[in-house]
Write a structure and sequence with these properties.
Elements lengths: L6 H4 L2 H10 L6 H13 L3 E4 L6 H12 L3 E5 L6 H5 L4 H5 L16 E5 L6 H13 L1 E4 L2 E4 L4 E6 L9 H6 L2 E4 L8 H12 L12 H11 L8 H13 L6 H17 L21 H14 L3 H24 L6 H20 L5 H25 L2
Parallel strand pairs: 1-6, 1-7, 2-3, 3-6
Antiparallel strand pairs: 4-5
Length: 383
């Protein structure tokens, strides 16, 4: 095991891991993000969608980038517990001991991928619940502690059976994967060809299990004080919109927010980190789009700020055309001057609320445009 990196270096590793994880795939940024967040927080993720959307490939690559023990299995209703947890040890059984051979099976894995997880029968389901929650396999009269860090699971459907509610609730991060859109098909062909040629086969670890453990400990040092009240308000808004979070999910939300802040290289959470709720709150298919709209409306996210800046930019362009039509010393120029000053103050204030590179770049361009227009107005006013 390598020496644990210092915190300053650690904060750079999640982003590097994310970039390497999504590198071979086209249009799978959010899927990669949910896996990274699950790893940072030591939680589990469910990716819902049709086959052939790189779900298992992402999970396997995550394990390779961590040099972690990996287990993968496709569940059917006929899957036997021994297929997941290992066969009984016949020699031990002859001695009156109930023991499983768990080598290279789920109880031996640090990262696991279970495809079609909701096909699990009751015998497997009960064991999975304790593994996911307690990291313990209750098997006969024995308790087997498992090293599982995160489970990446997949399904082509959202469960509606009551008996699956407990399992679904234990998968903290949820995401619906969609086929690559048409505008990315050419890029998909090129990247798939590179995969077929083996370009991405030489996967070198970029983060150790020791690093991951240290990052997980750092999560609980993230300052969350500034987001708690906003989070409580969002809980109420989501409830009003028919999205109910269980007490377990509410309780784990702060961990997810801290993981998102850490992923962005920060030890203090911001309002924009609450956007991680889009991967936690949805239950049904329609919830995923609904919560995205709610968060864009309620949070000062970079995307929402950019929309506001675009509106200001549009208004400045309209003012610019009007200034071009006005003659010197026109009384309307005084009102325009005041409007431009107010717009500049607004843009400057926005620049202090976000350090997102897209926002800061847009702010710089917009302030320069407003300043140039102010110079033109003052010249026409003879100021």
């Amino acid at each position: 095991m390598t020496e644990t990196a210092q915190p300053a270096d650690l904060l750079e590793k999640p982003r590097l891991f994310y970039e390497k994880l999504k590198e071979p795939f086209v249009g799978r940024d959010e899927e990669a993000l949910t896996i990274v967040l699950a790893l940072l927080s030591g939680e589990h993720v469910i990716i819902i969608g049709e086959p052939g959307t790189a779900k298992s490939a992402l999970a396997r690559r995550a394990a390779l980038l961590l040099n972690a023990k990996f287990f993968k299995y496709l569940l059917t209703r006929f899957t036997e517990p021994s297929e997941l947890f290992g066969p009984l040890d016949i020699n031990a059984l002859r001695k009156g001991l109930y023991k499983r051979i768990t080598s290279n099976k789920l109880p031996d894995a640090e990262i696991a991928f279970l495809d079609e997880i909701f096909n699990a029968n009751s015998a497997i389901l009960n064991s999975l619940l304790s593994i996911l929650q307690e990291r313990v396999l209750y098997d006969g009269y024995s308790e087997i502690k498992v090293p599982l860090w995160s489970l990446v699971s997949a399904s082509n459907r959202i469960p509606d059976e009551p008996e699956l509610d407990a399992l679904y609730d234990r998968l903290l991060f949820r995401h619906i994967v969609k086929p690559v859109p048409e505008e990315l098909w050419e890029k998909l062909l090129d990247r798939s060809w590179m995969i077929e040629k083996g370009v991405f086969e030489d996967v070198k670890p970029v983060m150790s299990s020791s690093d991951l453990l240290s990052l997980n400990k750092l999560i609980f040092q993230v300052d969350l004080t500034s987001v708690k009240q906003s989070l409580l308000r969002l809980f109420a808004i989501l409830e009003d919109n028919g999205m109910h979070l269980t007490d377990r999910r509410k309780g784990k939300t702060l961990k997810a927010i801290a993981a998102y802040a850490l992923f962005n290289g920060r030890m203090k959470a911001r309002t924009e980190d609450l956007f991680v709720l889009k991967y936690i709150a949805p239950r049904d298919a329609e919830d995923f789009d609904k919560i995205n709209n709610i968060l864009l409306e309620e949070l000062r996210t970079p995307d929402k700020i950019l929309v506001e800046l675009d509106e200001i930019d549009h208004n400045v362009e309209l003012i610019k055309k009007e200034v071009g039509r006005l003659k010197s010393f026109d009384p309307k120029l005084v009102e325009i001057y005041r409007s431009l000053k107010a717009a500049r103050r607004r843009v400057a204030m926005i620049s202090r609320t976000s350090d997102d590179s897209r926002v800061t770049n847009k702010v710089d361009v917009l302030i320069n445009k407003i300043d140039d227009l102010l110079d033109e107005v003052t010249n026409k006013l003879g100021m």
